[in-house]
Amino acid sequence: MDADANAHVLEGGGAAATGSAGGLAYWGPAVAVSLAMFIGVIDSTLMNVAIPSIVADLDTTVTVVQGAISFYAMVMAALILPGGKLSSMYGIRRLMTATLLVYGVGTTLAALSWNVVVLYVGWSVIEGAAAAVLLPLTFTVLLVSYEGADRAKALGILAGVNAAGAAFGPLLGGAVTTFASWRWGFGVEVLIVLVALAFVRYLPEESLSETRTKLDVGGTLLSVVGTTALVAGVLLAGRYGWISARRPFAVGDVRLDLFGASPTVWLVGFGIVVFAAFVQYERRVEREGGSPLVPVRLLSNGPFTAGIATNAARSLVLAGFIFVVPVFLQSGAGYTAFETGVAMLPFSVATFVASIFTTDWRRFVAPKLLIQGGVVLMGLGVLALVSQTALDATVAQLAVPMALVGLGLGLVMAQLIDMTLSSVDQRDSAAASGLLNATMMLGYSFGTAIVGTYLLRGFYGGVVDGVLTAAGAGVSASDRGALVIALEDAAETATKETQRAVLDGLAPAQRELLADVFDAAIVQAQRETLLLLALFVLLVLLVSTLLPGGETDSGP
């Protein structure tokens, strides 16, 4: 897609090019894609606070529901690169309409789920696939519809919506779960889809390329296989370990000999090899004059690659944060889903406000410094939460740490998205949007899996250690590991409901002892997990040093 093609898009169907700068037609594309972004992001956070309710309603476990969240992110990550390519193949308006309709079908099916399989199909598969098309399309439309200060404003709004979707989800999910049912969370998404469809008419009809391009089938297959292997490996790490196998690995009734290694090692290694082959394949397609899924010149664009790396690390932190905090507040502190949403409200509001209203700060301070300042605020907020982690923690005590994390996140996103996408030519906007979203979803999936696994493993280990200490028993490290695995397999005890079910079957003295063990274990596991998150924040800060920096934006 070249500059002439972009002009053709705007002249032919883009109201943004001809409408009044203050009119609905002018900002219609921004409204449409912001709504699309909102439902794509909120899906990953809406149900976090509803995990215990879903577990009870569908008679499943926290691990299974965590898997649905991670699988949703995995499907999006696997399909976003080819999904981003579709905007160069089909008319934008038609593509957005069709994708929103498919998304509506998926969220309706998820709302009606009568078992976990249906939930996975509707939520993780259908919605995940539709979101893979919607998310890269949102950035691309703004890049070709607006210029200068308006583009920065539109991308800032979209970044705010992105962050707000992640932040507002727990509140909305908590409200519908407490006062109605978690199923209504998906019902709300259906309404948002209908509103988004009303604004699709402001999008250009043409594709983002005057020349009809073909889908890079080979690149698509390699990217899907590589992403699936990477994320599947991370998901299996919780059960089988990261390097050495914690238990035998079997597919059906067939036990596989992996030489004592976890399947995670093999899958992640395989994924890396596939992505190396993907890069080589894309180079060959480009040399032969074809249309690669990802132009190789993007991978050699230093500012762009630094931006997507920083954004991926930021996504990992956000995913871990919005998973472990709601789980602890409900499973440890005994909050209801709605109370959990209220506790996270300072985070939600601060994230949205900072994303929307700090876009113009780059006129006075270099964007890189603003991003790094935001990362520091996130780290301070996470560390403050460690000190406030207790079973009797109140909403007021959590407000300042939550707000610090939100302010930092919003400040990062207000600058990072525009800085990253503005570093590429408009002809590469679709591919850049797809790559940005793909790495973001990979970070999100890794964050949920890594941090979620760390929390649950710490909790189960704490329960075993507490029981052994109370009994005055000593066991070897291998025997302790076996006990942890046995506890994981015997009963899911990471929610208040299942803990209560276990305790009800015990004698009073045993019940009191084990209740104290549960409480101590969840508090300790949460503190250690937050410290792990703080290390990941440092990783974001380290990666951000690769961003271009120094100059302020003195433009209008």
Q: Can you give a write-up of this model?
A:
This protein folds into 4 domains: 24-209, MFS general substrate transporter like domains (Growth Hormone, Chain: A, Up-down Bundle); 217-290, no CATH class; 295-451 and 525-548, Growth Hormone, Chain: A (Up-down Bundle); 459-524, no CATH class. The protein has 21 helices and 2 strands. With 556 residues, the chain is mainly α. A hairpin with a 2-residue loop joins strand 1 (249-251) and strand 2 (254-256). The chain has a two-stranded antiparallel ribbon with strand order 1-2. It is 76% helix and 1% strand. Mean pLDDT is 78; it is low at 1-21. Helix 4 packs across helix 5. Residues 29-552 form the Major facilitator superfamily (MFS) profile domain. This is Transmembrane efflux protein. One of its GO terms (cellular component) is membrane.
Features:
Growth Hormone, Chain: A, 21 helices, mainly alpha, 556 residues, 2 strands, two-stranded antiparallel ribbon
Largest sheet: 2 strands, antiparallel
- Report the top-level CATH class of the largest domain: Mainly Alpha
Give the N-terminus to C-terminus distance in angstroms. Answer: 27 Å
Query: Could you tell me the radius of gyration in angstroms?
Result: 23 Å
CATH architecture of the largest domain: Up-down Bundle
**SS elements, strand count:** 2
What share of residues are in beta strands?
under 5%
Largest beta sheet: strand ordering: 1-2
The overall average pLDDT, rounded, is 78
Integer count of domains = 4
Level of helix content?
over 70%
Basic shape:
globular
In DSSP terms (H or I, runs of 4 or more residues), the helix count works out at 21
**What string, H for helix and E for strand, traces the elements in order?**
HHHHHHHHHHEEHHHHHHHHHHH
Structural class, by secondary structure, is: mainly alpha
Determine the CATH topology of the largest domain: Growth Hormone, Chain: A
Low-confidence stretches: 1-21
Query: Which superfamily, in CATH terms, is the homologous superfamily of the largest domain?
Result: MFS general substrate transporter like domains
